[in-house]
Specification:
Blueprint lengths: L1 H20 L10 H8 L5 H6 L2 E4 L4 E3 L5 E3 L1 H6 L6 E3 L7 H18 L7 E4 L16 H5 L4 H17 L4 E2 L23 H15 L4 H5 L4 E7 L18 H8 L1 H8 L5 E4 L3 E2 L2 E2 L4 H11 L5 E3 L7 H4 L7 H11 L4 E2 L8 H7 L3 H18 L10 H7 L3 H14 L1 E5 L11 E6 L7 H9 L3 E6 L19 H12 L3 E7 L26 H11 L3 E6 L7 H6 L2 E4 L7 H9 L55 E8 L3 E2 L5 E9 L5 E11 L10 E10 L4 E8 L6 E2 L5 E2 L3 E8 L5 E8 L2
């Protein structure tokens, strides 16, 4: 025992000696602020600016056949002074190979700059970690359909862990944008049309990916970069890079809240600015937005990164700067700390400082934020990946099971005429047909349904030519349709896989790429296929796969049942089969309003009540499917809605109770939704707003009382003087199964 104690004292002495020999910024006993304040003045101007730039690994970071790190001359030149970060190193190799590559890359970077400053390695997350060999989850808008924030938290917890295990540190995700225009090709990257739903999902995504913040320094999770601040997704005409025009009141009440919660509640490490302008002011050159709102009002202390090349675009695209140097200064003054990719932007800063030394103070401000982030992530003290953990923990059984669990909670049952679903696992012939049929669909259905059912699978035709830049629509031949019809005639049930694919809805990159659409009708001959198969007289079930809202009028009319999966995980077909054959009841709810026509846009459930006064000639009023809608194999009855009080003040709360009973024959989950409506306001108010939801599970004949609490903050809005107010008056409380179907009660807010 004596020797063990002496050995412990010796270790402490060695550790203290090692710390004494280190520079203060390397001393872990000091605070992060103290360490940053020590390191910054040691750095040259050029070294500081290097900490304000990110380049993409595709310019020359890779490994050879033996797994040895290979860097291009361009990369080695960039790394001499250090770097803020590198985007997507090792994205196309296995997690283990990526971890080894990134360890070697980090070691090279640390040794190559005077102060041993590590780099941030950055990924994104649209279906899990956007890299080879990671668990593939459904897209964000798919998980939003689950109306289950806790589930989203667990998904992004896996994203954070799997990314860190392959050597990543930051994630240019999640999107806190509100998406209300299905013409926009990036719709599925966000969490839907509603402010409250998006806020809940974004907060849980960030907390998950950052490991409740504690996982950052522990080396188990990565930092989030919430994007795109602000108003992106509201581009005119749904066209990427187009102008953004949002009323100041809408901006404050509907667009800002998910970002504000990302900062204040979830503690996001980063924010990415929006590609676009905001009512004429370019977001990348907007100090009122990036400093005034983000930092002065909300207290954000992380870093702000540009979107791809967007500081430079202030000059050559937005045309609000006189020169590339003026664009760089505009971005710096506005509050952009890191320049993503550009060679003609912050690269000019050292020369600019020679002409105007005052610029260096703003550079110091940004560099502090970057260094602070690296220290929060523990990169100065533990910059490398534990290789032994990678293969054990990436794509674990638990992570793969979670991907399917998320699918099963996100699939939306839009129609079920005559309760045709679920199908029985009895002897019958089922045809799996259509352009969205995958190679593994038939196998997935066979594994779920067993040997009693005979499946025939045929894609028939594809929607586009598959060009990743500017895809062209394919023409469908009569022979292709006839072949599908012949198969349908020989079947007892037809399941059509329809919607859109990765080419019909995608990001329209700055150059040589299109991804937005001028129509939201299903592409190609899909409606024709539905009509002709239905005419045969066989039961028709439609499985929708898509990345944008589609006006599925013909499908809605002709199909006997419709299951909407948006873009599911790698287990999507298996999950869909489990729903179709009744292993699980569908419980997803639509995170968007589904319009009948593109002519109804803009069209979301929370629009001002006056927008609903008139419909259109020759078009049925209302949406095809409202926000929050989704059927079940259970059947839910709502009753006994009650409020704890008929009056409320600025310092009191109201408790809302409702009884929900499953009067169906199957165990099922239901999303109970709370909406509030301000009956009379000093400014025109939304028709209703989602302010709460709870997902419950009930056995047949089981009842549960669901409780919500209405607090004064829910009733705040931006008034006539552009200040947040709490206005006395009458309010309606609506609780139900969707934004259209609910029970109603009233209360009055008093002074």
């Amino acid at each position: 025992m004596k020797y063990r104690f002496l050995f412990y004292l010796l270790l402490l002495a060695i550790s203290a000696s090692a710390q004494k020999n280190k520079m203060p910024y390397q001393n872990t006993s000091l605070s992060i602020e103290e360490r940053v304040e020590d390191l910054l003045p040691r750095m040259s101007l050029e070294e500081k600016v290097a900490q304000m730039r990110i380049f993409h690994a595709n310019i020359g970071v890779k490994s050879d056949e033996k797994g040895k790190l290979v860097l291009s001359e361009k990369v080695t030149e960039k790394l001499k002074l250090g770097i803020a970060g590198i985007k997507n190193p090792g994205e196309h190799i296995s997690p283990l190979a990526a971890a080894k590559l990134n360890n070697d890359l980090q070691k090279y970077i640390i040794k190559s700059n005077r102060w041993g400053i590590p780099a941030l390695f950055i990924t994104e997350s649209y279906n899990g970690v956007d890299a080879e060999g990671c668990t593939k989850f459904g897209r964000p808008i798919t998980s939003a359909a689950s109306f289950n924030p806790e589930l989203v938290n667990r998904i992004w917890d896996v994203v954070g862990k799997e990314a860190r295990l392959r050597g990543m540190h930051m994630c240019h995700s999640p999107e806190a944008d509100i998406v209300r225009d299905p013409r926009f090709g990036r719709m599925s990257e966000a969490f839907g049309e509603d402010t409250y739903l998006t806020t809940q999902m974004v907060v849980n995504a960030i907390k998950g990916v950052q490991g409740n913040y504690e996982g950052l320094g522990n080396g188990t999770h990565i930092g989030a970069v919430a994007k795109h601040f602000a108003g992106y997704g509201q581009v005119l005409g749904g066209s990427n890079f187009a102008a953004v025009e949002i009323s100041p009141r809408t901006l404050i009440d509907e667009i800002y809240p998910p970002f504000e919660a990302a900062v204040k509640e979830a503690r996001t490490l980063g924010i990415m600015a929006s590609h676009g302008d905001l009512n004429g002011v370019a977001s990348h050159g907007n100090p009122e937005l990036l400093t005034g709102v983000l930092r002065d009002q909300w207290g954000f202390d992380g870093y702000v990164v540009s979107d791809s090349n967007d500081i430079a675009r202030l000059y050559y695209f937005m045309k609000v700067a006189e020169s590339p140097e003026a664009a760089a200064l505009m971005g710096l003054v506005a509050g952009i700390d890191i320049d993503l990719y550009a060679e003609d932007s912050y690269a000019y800063l050292p020369e600019m400082v020679k002409k105007d030394p005052s610029i260096e103070k703003m550079i110091d401000r940004s560099v502090k934020r970057v260094l602070r982030t690296k220290m929060i992530l523990g990169l100065f003290d533990n910059p490398y990946v534990d290789i032994k953990k990678v293969e054990k923990e990436v794509r674990s059984e638990a992570s793969l099971a979670l991907a399917q669990e998320a699918d099963l909670e996100s699939i939306i049952l839009l129609k079920n005429e005559g309760d045709i679903l679920p199908l029985k696992k009895e002897k019958q012939k089922i045809a799996l047909l259509g352009p969205l049929l995958d190679k593994g669909t038939k196998t997935a259905f066979e594994e779920v349904a067993g040997n009693t059912i005979t499946f025939t699978a045929e894609q028939g035709f594809e929607l586009t030519d598959g060009n990743t830049s500017v895809p062209k629509m394919r023409s469908t031949t009569p022979d292709e349709l006839d072949k599908l019809l012949d198969i349908a005639k020989q079947s007892d049930v037809v399941i059509l896989f329809l919607g859109g694919d990765e080419f019909t809805s995608k990001e329209a990159y700055f150059n040589i790429a299109l991804g937005d659409r001028a129509t939201i009708d299903p592409v190609g001959a899909q409606d024709e296929l539905v009509k002709r198969v239905k005419a045969i007289g066989k039961p028709v079930i439609v499985v929708l796969k898509h990345r944008r809202t589609l006006s599925v009028n013909t499908i809605s009319e002709k199909a006997d049942a419709i299951l909407d999966g948006w873009d599911l995980s790698e287990f999507g077909d298996s999950s869909m089969a489990k729903i179709i054959f009744g292993e699980v009841s569908p419980s997803g709810k639509s995170p968007v309003t589904v319009p009948r026509s593109i002519g109804q846009l803009p069209f979301h459930y929370s629009m001002k009540e006056i927008n609903n006064k008139k419909g259109y000639l020759f078009l049925e009023d209302g949406p095809l499917y409202p926000f929050g809608f989704g059927l079940s194999y259970g059947k839910f009855a709502y009753s006994n809605l009650s409020l704890s009080s008929e009056t409320m003040t600025s310092t009191s709360e109201i408790t809302v109770n409702v009884q929900v009973t499953n009067i169906g024959k199957m165990k099922a989950k239901e999303v109970v939704q709370l909406y509030l409506k301000d009956e009379i306001g000093s400014v025109t108010r939304p028709d209703k707003e989602l302010n709460g939801f709870e997902k419950i599970e009930l056995n047949p004949d089981e009842s549960k009382t669901v409780t919500f609490t209405i607090v004064p903050k829910m009733l705040e809005f931006t008034g006539l003087k552009m200040e947040k107010i709490l206005e006395p008056g009458d309010y309606s409380v609506m609780v139900g199964t969707s934004s259209k179907e609910n029970l109603t009660a009233k209360f009055r807010l008093e002074k």
